[in-house]
Amino acid sequence: MRKKIVAGNWKMNTTPSQAIDLIEKLKPLVKNDDVEVIFCVPYVSLMLAVDAVKDTKIGIGAQNFYFEESGAYTGEISASMLKDIGVKYVIIGHSERRQYFNETDEIVNKKLLKAFEYEITPIVCCGETLEQREAGVTIDHITTQIKNAFRNVSDDLAKKAIIAYEPIWAIGTGVVATSDQAEEVCASIRACISEIYDKETAEIISILYGGSVSSANVKELFKKHNIDGGLVGGVSLKPEFGDVVNYK
Ligand code: PGA
Predict the structure, then answer these.
(1) 11 is in an annotated binding site
(2) pTM above 0.90?
């Protein structure tokens, strides 16, 4: 049985002092040994956040990093820097990064390989636009994204990855995918992993759904066989996040 994972994507929200206040507020609300809880906070709050959760099982994740080792990349943060301060997870290829910062599948792949090199668990995002869904090319598009992301990743490492299926039309819109729509794509991602690697790897890898997850829809979504949890944006900044973690 795969353990459920609930990761909060705080995006560009909260100052460091607000982040610490929020973590202290959420800590008692997200106690659940059956669920792996992750807070992906802004860079400048990472060190404080790692310290703030040290007496808990909550993991801290970054929302991005740059794939080069070090050097003249003004403004960038490396995987070794994240590793050194105790960051355990990193979101890679979120649709907002693809849309606003031109992140390509090739960059996503480089980041995935680098995150593994530093034993940081990648949360690899994929998802289709509304136009792609309406054109009936969702599964093709997602399969391409997954195949490109996992190029040259060994099966042993792939088993440790977390994939997040996030339909772009459902992110921040309040329009959640139906549990059947989400399950269909998550199942196809698992089939794709099975095709790239093998059935065992596909059974082990965690696949989350993201896009307007809330306390109102979490139960329905998490019931599905191929949905191993959620990547949660808006609600991750509210006490309601506790209800998502304690979805049962
Ligand atoms: P949302 O964001 O829950 O606000 O839709 C999800 C995400 O972008 O990861």
Answers:
(1) yes
(2) yes
